[in-house]
Design brief:
It is found in: Secreted. By secondary structure, the chain is of the alpha/beta class. The chain has helices at residues 68-75, 77-84, 119-133, 148-158, 225-235, 281-291, 294-297, 316-324, and strands spanning 5-7, 26-34, 37-45, 55-61, 87-91, 95-96, 103-104, 136-146, 166-170, 178-181, 184-187, 199-205, 215-216, 222-223, 245-247, 250-255, 264-269, 277-279, 349-351, 375-377. An eleven-stranded mixed β-sheet has the order 1-2-3-5-4-8-9-12-17-16-15, with helices on both faces. α4 (148-158) links the parallel β8 (136-146) and β9 (166-170). It is globular, with a radius of gyration of 21 Å. The relative contact order is 0.13.
């Protein structure tokens, strides 16, 4: 871990820390000053970084009751960054979590708790200072959010800021705060106004008990994942029906024709919970063997190679990175067919055992005084997490 870097209103030599200078590889703490408040984060520099060439930047937003280090452990965005040569910046929410050293996000119009700061301003400042501190390509800045972090990212996009070229969501996609009209919950269509159509990739588990796939649960959730996806297809002006395909309990959908080249993709895991999906180790081994060439494949007994509609062995960060980097291509899903060895190599999704399950119980309240005609907004208990 390197020394803490302080970012705020930077002048003089601090500005020279961008393009032109190499930086130490690995994870490093960073402090970002926003409206006079020092906020924490963690950044990752790949070993290939020289400071001479502009590289992509991915923001990683943790879930409730977590922190930047824990999120990087969960998401493995730093591993994907090391392999592909980009920078990751994991931000930290302002609300205290359920245990020491953990945090949650003060989501606008959704979560209100004493002590929470302006998260929109924090994200905006983090973007601005990252551009000053690192040699990044402003056209290739992306964001990913897990659970509460994805709800925060959803709110950021809905607020109308045009900073991210694409965004990814794991168990978290929203399209505005939940409101009820005529006995049915849905997104507040007046409260989500993105600056432009934006490409989105979202993941969901049918057995998610924290942010239920079908909706309901905590007051901040209420409408389901399908409703959120449908709303984003409307916001992005997408055409078609999503071209739905299912392989080994994983359902993939892609709206590939939206306004301004945007796309909306989703993965739904029939047996998925609230845990961050991880590839099945046995399948990874077979895929690796297949990539070594035919000679290696013959060493595996009774290999039967099939070609499914897509590779259902999904690692969200890797799949999001492929999606982010193919803005002008319809080839946004992994099409390499994994070889199968009986049931042991069945494609699917495991769980990141070192991360455990996030008890994402962040409650919500809405402090907006704006009336909503004949609608009831999703409010929870003040000061709840």
């Amino acid at each position: 871990m390197g020394a803490t870097t302080f970012l705020g209103s930077m002048t003089g030599s601090a500005l020279a820390a961008g393009c032109g200078q190499p930086m130490e590889a690995g994870r490093h703490p960073i402090t970002i000053e926003t409206d006079g408040v020092a906020r924490s984060a963690v950044y990752f520099i790949p070993s290939s970084y020289t400071g001479k060439d502009k590289v992509p930047l991915v923001f990683d937003l943790h879930g409730s009751h977590s922190n930047p280090q824990g999120q990087l452990n969960r998401s493995s965005w730093d591993k994907v960054a090391e392999k592909n040569g980009f920078i990751v910046l994991a931000l930290q929410g302002s609300l205290p979590g359920s245990s020491a050293g953990t945090y949650a996000w003060n989501v606008p119009f959704v979560t209100v708790q004493q002590g929470g700061f302006d998260e929109i301003a924090y994200i905006r400042q983090a973007i601005a200072t990252a551009k000053q501190q690192f040699c990044v390509d402003p056209a290739r800045i992306y964001a990913s959010g897990y659970s509460g972090g994805g709800r925060m990212l959803s709110a950021y996009l809905c607020s109308g800021h045009d900073d991210f070229a694409a965004a990814g969501f794991v168990h978290s996609l929203r399209a505005g705060r939940p409101v009820e009209a005529d006995g049915k919950w849905g997104p507040d269509t007046q409260g989500c106004n993105p600056a432009r159509p934006i490409s989105i990739m979202a993941f969901a588990g049918v057995k998610d008990a924290a942010n239920p796939y079908a909706g309901g649960g905590s007051a901040y959730w209420q409408y389901g994942f399908k409703t959120a996806i449908q709303r984003w297809t409307e916001l992005d002006g997408c055409k078609g029906n999503g071209d739905v395909k299912t392989v080994d309990g994983v359902t993939f959908s892609l709206y590939g024709t939206c306004k301004n080249g945007a796309r909306v993709a989703s993965y739904v895991f029939a047996n998925g919970t609230h845990d961050w999906p991880k590839p099945v180790a046995a399948t990874e081994a077979v895929i690796a063997a297949a990539k070594d060439g035919a000679a290696s494949v013959t060493k595996v007994a009774a290999v039967t190679v099939s070609k499914p509609a897509f590779d259902a062995n999904v690692d969200p960060a890797s799949r999001m990175w492929e999606f982010f980097g193919k803005a002008d291509s319809t080839d946004v899903i992994a099409t390499a067919a994994p070889a199968k060895i009986g049931s042991a190599a069945k494609s699917g999704t495991g769980v990141a055992s070192r991360c455990g399950t996030e008890a994402d119980l962040q409650g919500t309240t809405c402090n907006s005084n704006q009336p909503i005609d004949m609608r009831r907004n999703g409010q929870g208990v003040q000061d709840a997490l």
